[in-house]
Amino acid sequence: MEKIINIIESIAHEKGLRMSEAKEAVSTALIRTAQKVFGEEYDYTVNIDEKTKELNLFQKVLVVADDDERLEENSEEGEKYIAISDAKEADADLEVGDEITYQLSLDNMGRTAAAILYRELEYHIQRLLEQNIFEKYKEKIGELISAPVTRVDNNENTYLEYREVQAILPMKSRIKGEKFKTGDTVRAVIRRVYIDKKMGMQIEVSRTTPKFLEKLLELQVPEIKDGMVEIHASARIPGERAKIALSALTPNVDPVGATVGTKGVRINAVSQELHGENIDCIEYSTIPEKFIARAMSPAIISAVRIEGEKAIVTLPADQKSKAIGKSGINIRLASMLTGYEIELAELGGTTSATSDETGTEETTNNPDALKALFGE
After folding, report:
1. Measured over all CA atoms, what is the biggest interatomic distance in the chain, rounded to whole angstroms?
2. pTM for this entry
3. Do residue 118 and residue 228 come from a single domain?
């Protein structure tokens, strides 16, 4: 085990690992080898001497009374316990219950031990690499990626080659009507990273989450990328319609105008990526009533009253159809965007519709929703 530090440094450099990680992998591999050679019932420790660059393997032995029955568990292959009388011959200060260690040598154990050590080292280095990759991509949840399609399976799940890993775009996370083939380049956001027992580490991406819309806008709108315009919330019914709430950090910037762009060039570019999804840009307000009224656009709202988690929206009768939208899409999106259950009431009339009646979709109008969305 001479100059083990040099070997560990080579492993760390070749595999792109930190020195501490490589040391831990080598130590674990050596302990597992000792367990297989000497027996798993014994306790082992590893010490790496930085000065001599040597690695030493030790076995722990518990000091017990001379008449302790556990002494009978010792075997020719090794000892788990040592009688106090024998222990004091080496160190007079030892007491019952103390642990002593003695060095083991792997140099004379032959090719079998060397082969076991090689396999163990290979296994633990590989697990360490996979764990590092897993942690790296966990930090990328919510980021936009662009990657080529490598295959599409019988269930229409699309597989992408992204850097050193494979990403999967499930059929449920595609916009309705989308189909991809091998060689296509697909953009999506990383939705979650997980370990599959059979397939190993998996990256799941999505094109239906509101986060995908936000990332596409960030690409198209410099003011959003630079932080001059902030996205407060977004909601989508993928491939059909979306609403996004925006605000500007300075009064001289129009958040909606900047996002839409001259003649709609910016918002149209995003809409095209989303297969014609109609995107409503709304100026955010910290006043819930005002924010809800804006979210109900294109309907003209007369008044908004907040009752806990519910918003009672009063409007003229001729605005009801606009407020609800085709198949209830407008009121659903407004509810998702604002976080309130919206109930419509005609001027001088009775309740006409609620957002609850039309179901719910994915939304990013608060941090908890984001965590639930990305599986954090």
Report:
1. 101
2. 0.72
3. no
104 in the same domain as 121: yes
d(CA 339, CA 327): 20
- How far the first Cα of the chain sits from its last, in Å, is 44
What's the CATH number where 36 sits?
Answer: 3.30.1480.10
β-sheet with 241-248: strand ranges across: 229-237, 241-248, 278-283
Q: Is the peptide bond before 316 cis (omega within 30 degrees of 0)?
A: no
In the structure encoding, which two tokens stand for residue 328, read together? 């209830």
* Total domain count, the chain: 3
pLDDT given at position 109: 63
Q: Of 85, 120, 138, which closes a domain?
A: 138
* Neighbouring residues of 232: CB distance < 8 A, sequence distance ≥ 6: 245, 246, 247, 284, 365
Q: Which residue has the tokens 């918002």?
A: 267
Q: Are residues 23 and 94 in the same domain?
A: yes
**Alpha-carbon dihedral sign for residues 28, 31, 37, 40:** negative
pLDDT tens per residue, range 38-96: 777 778 888 887 777 777 888 888 888 888 877 777 665 556 778 888 788 777 888 88
Residues 21/128, Cβ–Cβ less than 8 Å:
yes
More confident: 193 or 41: 193
Amino acid at 93: D
Domain with 190 in it: what CATH number? Answer: 2.40.50.140
Judge if 201 and 214 occupy the same domain: no
Q: Tokens 């031990």, residue?
A: 113
